[in-house]
Amino acid sequence: MLRYLNRDDIERRNEAESVDDATEDWKKKAEMLRFALLENLVNTISS
Question: How far apart are CA 25 and CA 38, in angstroms?
Answer without folding.
Answer: 20
